[in-house]
Specification:
By secondary structure, this protein is α/β, with parallel strands linked by helices. About 35% of the residues lie in helices and about 25% in strands. Bound molecules: flavin-adenine dinucleotide (FAD). The site of flavin-adenine dinucleotide (FAD) has 42 residues, from helix 2, strand 12, strand 16 and helix 10. The site of flavin-adenine dinucleotide has 42 residues, from helix 2, strand 12, strand 16 and helix 10.
Length: about 450
Protein backbone atom coordinates (compact mmCIF):
# COMPACT_ATOMS: atom_id res chain seq x y z
CA UNK A 1 0.00 0.00 0.00
CA UNK A 2 2.92 2.35 0.71
CA UNK A 3 3.70 4.06 -2.58
CA UNK A 4 6.29 6.58 -3.56
CA UNK A 5 4.08 9.61 -3.79
CA UNK A 6 4.89 13.21 -4.59
CA UNK A 7 3.57 15.24 -1.72
CA UNK A 8 2.50 18.89 -1.65
CA UNK A 9 5.49 21.16 -1.06
CA UNK A 10 4.17 24.68 -1.46
CA UNK A 11 6.59 27.58 -1.04
CA UNK A 12 6.55 29.54 2.23
CA UNK A 13 5.87 32.88 0.56
CA UNK A 14 2.05 32.92 0.54
CA UNK A 15 1.30 36.48 1.65
CA UNK A 16 -2.29 35.75 2.72
CA UNK A 17 -1.01 33.11 5.18
CA UNK A 18 2.08 34.97 6.33
CA UNK A 19 0.16 38.12 7.37
CA UNK A 20 -2.17 36.16 9.67
CA UNK A 21 -1.47 36.16 13.41
CA UNK A 22 0.68 33.20 14.52
CA UNK A 23 -1.33 29.98 14.23
CA UNK A 24 -1.54 27.30 16.95
CA UNK A 25 0.95 24.44 16.56
CA UNK A 26 -0.22 21.64 14.27
CA UNK A 27 -1.17 18.28 15.79
CA UNK A 28 0.06 15.65 13.31
CA UNK A 29 -1.40 12.17 13.73
CA UNK A 30 1.05 9.67 15.18
CA UNK A 31 0.47 5.91 14.95
CA UNK A 32 -2.63 3.91 13.98
CA UNK A 33 -6.20 5.22 14.25
CA UNK A 34 -9.79 4.31 13.45
CA UNK A 35 -12.50 6.67 12.26
CA UNK A 36 -15.94 6.35 10.67
CA UNK A 37 -15.16 8.91 7.97
CA UNK A 38 -11.81 10.04 6.66
CA UNK A 39 -11.32 13.13 4.48
CA UNK A 40 -7.91 13.56 2.83
CA UNK A 41 -6.92 17.09 1.74
CA UNK A 42 -8.13 20.21 3.55
CA UNK A 43 -8.67 22.71 0.74
CA UNK A 44 -12.13 24.08 -0.06
CA UNK A 45 -13.37 20.62 -1.13
CA UNK A 46 -12.07 18.72 1.88
CA UNK A 47 -12.96 21.41 4.43
CA UNK A 48 -16.57 21.59 3.18
CA UNK A 49 -16.85 17.78 3.05
CA UNK A 50 -15.55 17.44 6.62
CA UNK A 51 -18.01 19.95 8.04
CA UNK A 52 -20.98 18.49 6.19
CA UNK A 53 -20.14 14.89 7.14
CA UNK A 54 -19.92 15.93 10.78
CA UNK A 55 -23.24 17.80 10.56
CA UNK A 56 -25.07 14.93 8.87
CA UNK A 57 -23.58 12.19 11.04
CA UNK A 58 -23.41 13.71 14.53
CA UNK A 59 -22.75 10.35 16.22
CA UNK A 60 -19.89 9.42 13.88
CA UNK A 61 -16.22 10.39 14.03
CA UNK A 62 -14.87 12.43 11.11
CA UNK A 63 -11.13 12.91 10.57
CA UNK A 64 -9.51 15.38 8.17
CA UNK A 65 -5.84 14.96 7.19
CA UNK A 66 -3.68 17.42 5.29
CA UNK A 67 -0.05 17.01 4.30
CA UNK A 68 0.56 20.69 5.15
CA UNK A 69 -0.99 23.36 7.39
CA UNK A 70 -4.57 24.23 6.40
CA UNK A 71 -4.46 27.33 4.13
CA UNK A 72 -0.91 26.60 3.15
CA UNK A 73 -2.14 24.81 0.00
CA UNK A 74 -3.80 26.35 -3.04
CA UNK A 75 -7.08 27.08 -1.22
CA UNK A 76 -5.26 29.52 1.07
CA UNK A 77 -3.13 31.09 -1.66
CA UNK A 78 -5.62 32.10 -4.38
CA UNK A 79 -6.88 35.55 -5.32
CA UNK A 80 -9.95 35.34 -3.08
CA UNK A 81 -12.75 35.72 -5.67
CA UNK A 82 -15.78 33.58 -4.77
CA UNK A 83 -17.27 33.71 -8.24
CA UNK A 84 -21.01 33.17 -8.70
CA UNK A 85 -21.13 33.08 -12.51
CA UNK A 86 -19.91 30.31 -14.82
CA UNK A 87 -16.29 30.92 -15.70
CA UNK A 88 -14.29 30.54 -18.91
CA UNK A 89 -15.31 27.30 -20.72
CA UNK A 90 -18.42 26.98 -18.57
CA UNK A 91 -19.68 30.41 -19.70
CA UNK A 92 -18.71 29.90 -23.34
CA UNK A 93 -20.69 26.65 -23.75
CA UNK A 94 -23.97 26.60 -25.70
CA UNK A 95 -26.22 24.99 -23.05
CA UNK A 96 -28.10 27.69 -21.10
CA UNK A 97 -29.68 25.27 -18.62
CA UNK A 98 -26.23 23.89 -17.76
CA UNK A 99 -24.91 27.41 -17.16
CA UNK A 100 -27.87 28.12 -14.86
CA UNK A 101 -26.96 25.00 -12.88
CA UNK A 102 -23.43 26.38 -12.38
CA UNK A 103 -24.90 29.65 -11.14
CA UNK A 104 -27.23 27.82 -8.74
CA UNK A 105 -24.35 25.72 -7.38
CA UNK A 106 -21.95 28.64 -6.99
CA UNK A 107 -24.56 30.76 -5.26
CA UNK A 108 -25.42 27.91 -2.90
CA UNK A 109 -21.71 27.83 -1.97
CA UNK A 110 -21.70 31.59 -1.38
CA UNK A 111 -24.83 31.44 0.83
CA UNK A 112 -23.36 28.59 2.89
CA UNK A 113 -19.97 30.22 3.31
CA UNK A 114 -21.59 33.55 4.18
CA UNK A 115 -23.71 31.89 6.85
CA UNK A 116 -20.61 30.25 8.34
CA UNK A 117 -18.60 33.47 8.23
CA UNK A 118 -21.44 35.39 9.92
CA UNK A 119 -22.42 32.77 12.52
CA UNK A 120 -18.81 32.14 13.53
CA UNK A 121 -17.53 35.71 13.21
CA UNK A 122 -14.78 34.60 10.83
CA UNK A 123 -12.58 37.63 10.24
CA UNK A 124 -11.68 37.21 6.54
CA UNK A 125 -12.56 40.53 4.83
CA UNK A 126 -15.75 38.90 3.43
CA UNK A 127 -17.14 41.50 1.07
CA UNK A 128 -20.00 41.88 -1.44
CA UNK A 129 -17.69 43.95 -3.63
CA UNK A 130 -18.58 42.18 -6.90
CA UNK A 131 -16.07 41.65 -9.69
CA UNK A 132 -14.62 43.93 -12.34
CA UNK A 133 -13.37 42.35 -15.53
CA UNK A 134 -10.98 44.79 -17.17
CA UNK A 135 -9.97 45.24 -20.82
CA UNK A 136 -6.75 47.01 -21.78
CA UNK A 137 -6.80 46.58 -25.58
CA UNK A 138 -9.39 46.33 -28.37
CA UNK A 139 -9.01 42.56 -28.15
CA UNK A 140 -10.00 42.72 -24.46
CA UNK A 141 -12.95 45.02 -25.21
CA UNK A 142 -14.29 42.50 -27.74
CA UNK A 143 -14.10 39.76 -25.08
CA UNK A 144 -16.04 41.96 -22.65
CA UNK A 145 -18.76 42.68 -25.19
CA UNK A 146 -19.09 38.97 -25.82
CA UNK A 147 -19.30 38.23 -22.09
CA UNK A 148 -21.95 40.92 -21.64
CA UNK A 149 -23.97 39.26 -24.40
CA UNK A 150 -23.60 35.83 -22.76
CA UNK A 151 -24.71 37.25 -19.41
CA UNK A 152 -27.76 38.88 -21.01
CA UNK A 153 -28.74 35.48 -22.41
CA UNK A 154 -28.68 34.19 -18.84
CA UNK A 155 -30.66 37.16 -17.52
CA UNK A 156 -27.69 38.20 -15.37
CA UNK A 157 -26.79 41.85 -14.74
CA UNK A 158 -23.47 43.13 -16.08
CA UNK A 159 -22.68 46.84 -16.12
CA UNK A 160 -20.06 48.22 -18.52
CA UNK A 161 -17.84 50.95 -16.98
CA UNK A 162 -15.77 53.24 -19.19
CA UNK A 163 -12.13 54.09 -18.47
CA UNK A 164 -12.98 57.28 -16.52
CA UNK A 165 -15.49 55.59 -14.20
CA UNK A 166 -13.05 52.75 -13.68
CA UNK A 167 -10.23 55.14 -12.81
CA UNK A 168 -12.31 56.61 -9.98
CA UNK A 169 -12.70 53.14 -8.54
CA UNK A 170 -9.26 51.58 -9.09
CA UNK A 171 -7.01 54.64 -9.40
CA UNK A 172 -5.58 53.65 -12.80
CA UNK A 173 -6.33 54.73 -16.36
CA UNK A 174 -4.65 51.66 -17.81
CA UNK A 175 -7.92 50.01 -18.80
CA UNK A 176 -10.36 51.04 -21.55
CA UNK A 177 -13.41 49.38 -20.04
CA UNK A 178 -14.58 46.96 -17.40
CA UNK A 179 -17.60 44.73 -16.99
CA UNK A 180 -18.94 44.81 -13.43
CA UNK A 181 -20.89 41.85 -12.08
CA UNK A 182 -22.28 42.26 -8.57
CA UNK A 183 -22.61 38.67 -7.27
CA UNK A 184 -18.94 37.85 -6.68
CA UNK A 185 -17.61 37.86 -3.10
CA UNK A 186 -14.08 38.92 -2.21
CA UNK A 187 -12.27 37.53 0.83
CA UNK A 188 -8.89 36.78 2.41
CA UNK A 189 -8.49 33.09 1.51
CA UNK A 190 -6.05 32.00 4.23
CA UNK A 191 -8.11 33.77 6.91
CA UNK A 192 -11.28 32.09 5.62
CA UNK A 193 -9.67 28.63 5.56
CA UNK A 194 -8.22 29.02 9.07
CA UNK A 195 -11.59 30.32 10.31
CA UNK A 196 -13.41 27.34 8.80
CA UNK A 197 -10.91 24.99 10.44
CA UNK A 198 -11.30 26.61 13.85
CA UNK A 199 -15.08 26.25 13.75
CA UNK A 200 -15.49 22.63 12.61
CA UNK A 201 -18.16 20.68 14.55
CA UNK A 202 -17.00 18.85 17.68
CA UNK A 203 -17.14 15.37 16.11
CA UNK A 204 -14.60 16.40 13.44
CA UNK A 205 -10.87 16.40 14.12
CA UNK A 206 -8.15 17.72 11.81
CA UNK A 207 -4.54 16.56 11.75
CA UNK A 208 -2.33 18.92 9.78
CA UNK A 209 1.18 18.03 8.58
CA UNK A 210 0.01 14.42 8.14
CA UNK A 211 0.60 13.28 4.55
CA UNK A 212 -1.15 10.21 3.20
CA UNK A 213 1.10 7.81 1.33
CA UNK A 214 -1.40 5.30 -0.03
CA UNK A 215 -4.74 3.61 0.50
CA UNK A 216 -6.39 0.25 -0.12
CA UNK A 217 -9.65 -1.49 0.63
CA UNK A 218 -9.59 -4.65 2.72
CA UNK A 219 -12.64 -6.54 4.07
CA UNK A 220 -14.90 -3.61 3.21
CA UNK A 221 -12.81 -1.08 5.16
CA UNK A 222 -10.34 1.50 3.86
CA UNK A 223 -6.79 1.32 5.19
CA UNK A 224 -4.91 4.56 4.74
CA UNK A 225 -1.14 4.70 5.19
CA UNK A 226 0.56 7.68 6.81
CA UNK A 227 4.25 8.03 7.70
CA UNK A 228 3.70 6.58 11.16
CA UNK A 229 0.69 4.30 10.95
CA UNK A 230 -2.50 3.05 9.33
CA UNK A 231 -5.92 4.65 9.62
CA UNK A 232 -8.93 2.40 9.21
CA UNK A 233 -12.10 4.09 7.95
CA UNK A 234 -15.49 3.01 6.63
CA UNK A 235 -15.57 5.67 3.96
CA UNK A 236 -12.94 8.01 2.52
CA UNK A 237 -13.47 11.32 0.71
CA UNK A 238 -10.64 12.85 -1.33
CA UNK A 239 -10.12 16.60 -1.58
CA UNK A 240 -6.58 16.17 -2.89
CA UNK A 241 -7.07 17.79 -6.32
CA UNK A 242 -3.98 17.17 -8.53
CA UNK A 243 -2.46 14.90 -5.84
CA UNK A 244 -5.31 12.44 -6.38
CA UNK A 245 -3.23 10.98 -9.23
CA UNK A 246 -0.40 10.35 -6.77
CA UNK A 247 -2.75 8.05 -4.88
CA UNK A 248 -3.15 6.04 -8.10
CA UNK A 249 -6.55 7.50 -9.01
CA UNK A 250 -7.72 9.60 -12.00
CA UNK A 251 -4.23 9.30 -13.46
CA UNK A 252 -3.33 11.15 -16.69
CA UNK A 253 -6.51 13.24 -16.65
CA UNK A 254 -5.51 16.49 -14.93
CA UNK A 255 -3.02 19.12 -16.04
CA UNK A 256 -0.95 20.60 -13.20
CA UNK A 257 -0.72 24.31 -13.92
CA UNK A 258 0.83 26.81 -11.54
CA UNK A 259 -0.14 30.46 -11.40
CA UNK A 260 1.54 33.11 -9.25
CA UNK A 261 0.69 36.10 -7.08
CA UNK A 262 2.55 38.92 -5.32
CA UNK A 263 1.37 41.09 -2.43
CA UNK A 264 2.60 44.54 -1.40
CA UNK A 265 2.77 45.93 2.09
CA UNK A 266 -0.20 48.16 3.04
CA UNK A 267 -0.17 51.60 1.39
CA UNK A 268 0.56 54.51 3.71
CA UNK A 269 -2.02 57.33 3.88
CA UNK A 270 0.13 59.41 1.49
CA UNK A 271 0.47 56.52 -0.96
CA UNK A 272 -3.26 55.86 -0.79
CA UNK A 273 -3.91 59.49 -1.65
CA UNK A 274 -1.53 59.32 -4.61
CA UNK A 275 -3.12 56.04 -5.67
CA UNK A 276 -6.40 57.89 -6.08
CA UNK A 277 -8.84 54.96 -6.04
CA UNK A 278 -11.01 53.25 -3.42
CA UNK A 279 -10.18 50.13 -1.42
CA UNK A 280 -11.79 46.68 -1.43
CA UNK A 281 -12.15 45.77 -5.10
CA UNK A 282 -11.04 42.97 -7.41
CA UNK A 283 -10.41 42.90 -11.13
CA UNK A 284 -9.93 39.85 -13.34
CA UNK A 285 -8.63 40.13 -16.92
CA UNK A 286 -10.93 40.19 -19.95
CA UNK A 287 -8.45 37.90 -21.64
CA UNK A 288 -7.75 34.99 -19.31
CA UNK A 289 -3.98 35.00 -19.69
CA UNK A 290 -3.95 38.61 -18.42
CA UNK A 291 -3.48 40.07 -14.93
CA UNK A 292 -5.76 39.80 -11.90
CA UNK A 293 -5.66 42.60 -9.32
CA UNK A 294 -6.97 42.83 -5.78
CA UNK A 295 -6.84 45.89 -3.60
CA UNK A 296 -7.70 44.78 -0.08
CA UNK A 297 -9.45 46.50 2.78
CA UNK A 298 -6.09 46.82 4.52
CA UNK A 299 -4.81 48.55 1.35
CA UNK A 300 -2.51 45.89 -0.01
CA UNK A 301 -2.23 45.38 -3.75
CA UNK A 302 -2.21 41.75 -4.91
CA UNK A 303 -1.17 41.00 -8.50
CA UNK A 304 -1.66 37.59 -10.18
CA UNK A 305 -0.53 36.48 -13.62
CA UNK A 306 1.62 33.89 -15.47
CA UNK A 307 0.94 30.20 -15.91
CA UNK A 308 3.49 27.38 -15.89
CA UNK A 309 3.13 23.68 -16.55
CA UNK A 310 4.47 22.03 -13.37
CA UNK A 311 4.70 18.23 -13.57
CA UNK A 312 6.49 18.30 -10.17
CA UNK A 313 3.74 20.54 -8.73
CA UNK A 314 6.31 23.06 -7.52
CA UNK A 315 8.33 26.10 -8.59
CA UNK A 316 11.92 27.11 -7.89
CA UNK A 317 13.12 30.25 -6.10
CA UNK A 318 14.67 31.39 -9.40
CA UNK A 319 11.36 31.03 -11.21
CA UNK A 320 9.54 33.02 -8.55
CA UNK A 321 12.22 35.72 -8.73
CA UNK A 322 11.51 36.07 -12.48
CA UNK A 323 7.78 36.13 -11.81
CA UNK A 324 8.29 38.80 -9.15
CA UNK A 325 9.87 41.04 -11.81
CA UNK A 326 6.96 40.43 -14.19
CA UNK A 327 4.52 41.34 -11.42
CA UNK A 328 6.49 44.55 -10.82
CA UNK A 329 6.16 45.47 -14.47
CA UNK A 330 2.40 44.81 -14.38
CA UNK A 331 2.01 46.92 -11.22
CA UNK A 332 4.13 49.82 -12.45
CA UNK A 333 2.41 49.90 -15.85
CA UNK A 334 -0.91 50.37 -14.05
CA UNK A 335 0.32 52.50 -11.14
CA UNK A 336 3.41 54.55 -12.04
CA UNK A 337 2.61 56.59 -8.90
CA UNK A 338 3.33 53.45 -6.82
CA UNK A 339 6.63 52.56 -8.50
CA UNK A 340 8.42 52.49 -5.13
CA UNK A 341 5.88 50.22 -3.46
CA UNK A 342 7.65 46.90 -2.77
CA UNK A 343 6.12 43.45 -2.91
CA UNK A 344 6.52 41.66 0.41
CA UNK A 345 5.57 38.21 -0.91
CA UNK A 346 5.58 36.30 -4.21
CA UNK A 347 4.16 32.78 -4.33
CA UNK A 348 2.83 30.09 -6.66
CA UNK A 349 -0.06 27.66 -6.36
CA UNK A 350 -0.99 24.55 -8.32
CA UNK A 351 -4.34 24.40 -10.09
CA UNK A 352 -5.75 21.59 -12.18
CA UNK A 353 -7.19 21.91 -15.67
CA UNK A 354 -8.77 19.24 -17.81
CA UNK A 355 -8.60 19.30 -21.58
CA UNK A 356 -12.39 18.87 -21.87
CA UNK A 357 -13.03 21.46 -19.14
CA UNK A 358 -14.76 18.84 -16.98
CA UNK A 359 -14.51 18.30 -13.23
CA UNK A 360 -14.75 14.95 -11.47
CA UNK A 361 -17.37 14.49 -8.75
CA UNK A 362 -18.62 11.25 -7.23
CA UNK A 363 -17.79 7.71 -6.13
CA UNK A 364 -14.54 6.33 -7.56
CA UNK A 365 -14.72 2.91 -5.86
CA UNK A 366 -17.10 1.51 -3.24
CA UNK A 367 -16.79 3.82 -0.24
CA UNK A 368 -14.23 6.10 -1.90
CA UNK A 369 -15.35 9.51 -3.17
CA UNK A 370 -13.60 12.47 -4.79
CA UNK A 371 -14.21 15.93 -6.17
CA UNK A 372 -11.42 17.55 -8.12
CA UNK A 373 -10.23 19.43 -11.16
CA UNK A 374 -12.20 22.65 -10.86
CA UNK A 375 -10.29 24.28 -13.69
CA UNK A 376 -8.65 27.05 -11.70
CA UNK A 377 -11.83 28.43 -10.11
CA UNK A 378 -12.42 26.07 -7.22
CA UNK A 379 -13.38 28.39 -4.38
CA UNK A 380 -17.16 28.33 -4.90
CA UNK A 381 -17.28 25.08 -6.87
CA UNK A 382 -14.86 23.30 -4.55
CA UNK A 383 -16.94 24.33 -1.54
CA UNK A 384 -20.30 23.24 -2.92
CA UNK A 385 -18.88 20.04 -4.41
CA UNK A 386 -17.29 19.09 -1.06
CA UNK A 387 -20.58 19.73 0.73
CA UNK A 388 -22.58 17.72 -1.82
CA UNK A 389 -20.01 14.91 -1.88
CA UNK A 390 -20.55 14.50 1.87
CA UNK A 391 -24.31 14.43 1.25
CA UNK A 392 -23.97 11.79 -1.48
CA UNK A 393 -21.64 9.66 0.66
CA UNK A 394 -24.15 9.92 3.55
CA UNK A 395 -26.96 8.62 1.31
CA UNK A 396 -28.63 11.99 0.69
CA UNK A 397 -30.40 13.22 -2.41
CA UNK A 398 -31.37 16.74 -3.52
CA UNK A 399 -31.92 18.78 -6.66
CA UNK A 400 -28.60 20.52 -6.05
CA UNK A 401 -26.79 17.18 -5.77
CA UNK A 402 -28.32 16.06 -9.06
CA UNK A 403 -27.26 19.35 -10.66
CA UNK A 404 -23.70 18.76 -9.48
CA UNK A 405 -23.74 15.24 -10.88
CA UNK A 406 -25.06 16.53 -14.21
CA UNK A 407 -22.46 19.25 -14.68
CA UNK A 408 -19.59 16.91 -13.71
CA UNK A 409 -18.04 14.08 -15.69
CA UNK A 410 -14.73 12.46 -16.44
CA UNK A 411 -11.77 14.72 -17.28
CA UNK A 412 -10.46 13.57 -20.68
CA UNK A 413 -7.25 11.56 -20.91
CA UNK A 414 -4.12 13.58 -21.54
CA UNK A 415 -1.11 12.44 -23.59
CA UNK A 416 1.94 11.03 -21.79
CA UNK A 417 5.16 12.98 -21.22
CA UNK A 418 7.16 14.36 -23.01
CA UNK A 419 4.37 15.07 -25.57
CA UNK A 420 2.16 16.55 -22.85
CA UNK A 421 4.80 19.00 -21.64
CA UNK A 422 5.68 20.12 -25.15
CA UNK A 423 2.00 20.60 -26.09
CA UNK A 424 0.98 22.42 -22.90
CA UNK A 425 4.02 24.70 -22.91
CA UNK A 426 3.31 25.63 -26.52
CA UNK A 427 -0.36 26.36 -25.72
CA UNK A 428 0.59 28.51 -22.72
CA UNK A 429 3.15 30.45 -24.79
CA UNK A 430 0.59 31.06 -27.53
CA UNK A 431 -2.01 32.27 -25.01
CA UNK A 432 0.61 34.51 -23.38
CA UNK A 433 1.54 35.99 -26.77
CA UNK A 434 -2.08 36.53 -27.87
CA UNK A 435 -2.98 38.32 -24.65
CA UNK A 436 0.32 40.18 -24.12
CA UNK A 437 -1.47 43.54 -24.22
CA UNK A 438 -3.65 42.51 -21.24
CA UNK A 439 -0.79 41.35 -19.00
C1 LIG B 1 -2.65 32.31 -7.40
C2 LIG B 1 -4.00 31.63 -7.53
C3 LIG B 1 -5.15 32.41 -7.65
C4 LIG B 1 -6.40 31.78 -7.73
N1 LIG B 1 -7.53 32.56 -7.66
C5 LIG B 1 -8.74 31.99 -7.57
C6 LIG B 1 -9.90 32.79 -7.32
O1 LIG B 1 -9.81 34.00 -7.14
N2 LIG B 1 -11.12 32.18 -7.29
C7 LIG B 1 -11.24 30.80 -7.46
O2 LIG B 1 -12.37 30.29 -7.45
N3 LIG B 1 -10.15 30.02 -7.63
C8 LIG B 1 -8.91 30.57 -7.66
N4 LIG B 1 -7.80 29.78 -7.77
C9 LIG B 1 -7.98 28.31 -7.83
C10 LIG B 1 -8.45 27.73 -6.48
O3 LIG B 1 -7.62 28.18 -5.44
C11 LIG B 1 -8.45 26.20 -6.56
O4 LIG B 1 -9.31 25.80 -7.63
C12 LIG B 1 -8.96 25.59 -5.25
O5 LIG B 1 -8.18 26.00 -4.17
C13 LIG B 1 -8.95 24.07 -5.34
O6 LIG B 1 -9.41 23.57 -4.09
P1 LIG B 1 -9.28 22.05 -3.73
O7 LIG B 1 -9.85 21.87 -2.39
O8 LIG B 1 -9.85 21.23 -4.86
O9 LIG B 1 -7.72 21.72 -3.76
P2 LIG B 1 -6.47 22.32 -2.96
O10 LIG B 1 -6.71 23.66 -2.46
O11 LIG B 1 -5.29 22.08 -3.85
O12 LIG B 1 -6.39 21.37 -1.71
C14 LIG B 1 -5.81 20.08 -1.77
C15 LIG B 1 -5.25 19.79 -0.39
O13 LIG B 1 -4.85 18.43 -0.35
C16 LIG B 1 -3.67 18.33 0.41
N5 LIG B 1 -3.03 17.07 -0.01
C17 LIG B 1 -2.61 16.73 -1.26
N6 LIG B 1 -2.05 15.50 -1.25
C18 LIG B 1 -2.14 15.05 0.01
C19 LIG B 1 -1.75 13.83 0.64
N7 LIG B 1 -1.13 12.85 -0.03
N8 LIG B 1 -1.97 13.70 1.96
C20 LIG B 1 -2.61 14.68 2.66
N9 LIG B 1 -3.00 15.85 2.11
C21 LIG B 1 -2.77 16.04 0.80
C22 LIG B 1 -2.89 19.60 0.03
O14 LIG B 1 -1.93 19.93 1.01
C23 LIG B 1 -4.02 20.63 -0.08
O15 LIG B 1 -4.22 21.34 1.13
C24 LIG B 1 -6.51 30.36 -7.74
C25 LIG B 1 -5.36 29.58 -7.64
C26 LIG B 1 -4.11 30.21 -7.54
C27 LIG B 1 -2.88 29.35 -7.40
Amino acid sequence: MKRTVKLPADDRRNGWYEILPAQPESQPLVGDATTDWLVIGGGFVGMAATRRLAELNPNDSVMLLDAQRIAHGTSGRNSGFVIDLPHKGDLEGPDIERKKKFIGLNRAAIRWLEQLVTDNNIDCQWSHAGKLQGAVSERGVKFLQHFQFLLKELGEPGQMLDGAALKQKIGSDYYQQALYTPGCILMQPAALMRGLLATLPDNAVCHEDTPVLGLEQRNGLWRVQTKTGVITAKKVLLGTNIFTEQLGLLKSRMLPIMTFASMTRPLSDAEFKAFGGSDDWGLTPADYAGTTLRFTRDRRMVVRNQYRFVPDYSSSDAERARIHDQHRQALEARYPQLAQLPFEYTWGGVCTLSSNYTSFFGELKPGLYASCCHNGVGVARGTISGKLLAEQASGGDSLLLRDMQQVSGMPARIPPQPFLGIGVKARLKMAEWASRSEV
